[in-house]
Amino acid sequence: MRVIPAVDVLDHQVVQLVGGVPGSQQIVMPDPVAVAGMWIGKGAEYLHLVDLDGAFGKENNFPVFKRIIKEFGVPVEIGGGIRSSEAVRELISAGADRVIVGTKAVRDPDWLADLADEFPGRMVLSMDTKGGRIAVKGWQESAELTVGEMFARIKGMPLAAVLNTNVDVEGRRKGIDERQARDFIRSCPHKVIASGGVTSREDAEILSECGAEGAGVGLAMYTEVIRPWEWDTPWRARRPVRQFSDLSPSRSRQAIDSS
Predict the structure, then answer these.
(1) Please, how many CA atoms are within 13 Å of residue 63, restricted to the half-sphere of its CB?
(2) For strand 13-16 and strand 2-10, is the pairing parallel, antiparallel, or unpaired?
(3) What is the Cα–Cα distance from 141 to 161, expressed in whole angstroms?
(4) Residues that are catalytic
(5) Which domains does the chain possess?
(6) pLDDT 10s per residue in the chain (259 long)?
């Protein structure tokens, strides 16, 4: 499972918010292009670009995202406030590997289906959750559809993945909610990119074991609580395989006998 650095842009600066609440910035960095370059310089193979200005109904950050794509050539996924087919086409044409849609897609699944058919394998549905409900409009409102109902609507669509940010643990540096992550990944009919609360290699390995395709990480990497570029498998997490030496003698014999 790949670990993906998040570059969240608000007021044209890179920020990390607690639970998506404006004004709760834990990190503020003035140059999004330089921040993207920092992660790429550390070996990141993929970037998660989030337009918080767009999510909050302000002027979008498409120009800076296009600069990142042009200057570095690393695949990126872009989301945040994307609520028109024209915006999706603009980003795909600019070189985005994937485009993430949330609020409009949740409220109008037929629109999402049309986009998925137009760009098979390029669309990511953002199904962020807060208190067990789908959170929309920059995590400020709850959707009418339940998580299960949305899963039923998207089954069979040619999506690239579903992004699930657990808002309840996002930016709090207290770890993931393993039960929530496991339940969501198991129930989702598509590959899942998990986000929210990843603060250790163990968190990432648990998500890998659960079957996540990727993990978006923000605050914990900006504060270097987690340093995936230094792992023996840089920017990749996998659940360690138990070796016979890790088992008691009796359990080792059982493992050999059953092989």
Answers:
(1) 3
(2) antiparallel
(3) 23
(4) 8, 128
(5) 2-258 (3.20.20.70)
(6) 999 999 999 999 999 876 666 777 888 999 999 999 999 999 999 999 999 999 888 999 999 999 999 999 999 999 999 999 999 999 999 999 999 999 999 999 999 999 999 999 999 999 999 888 898 877 778 888 999 999 999 999 999 999 999 988 876 778 999 999 999 999 999 999 999 889 999 999 999 999 999 999 988 999 999 999 999 999 999 875 544 344 444 433 343 343 3
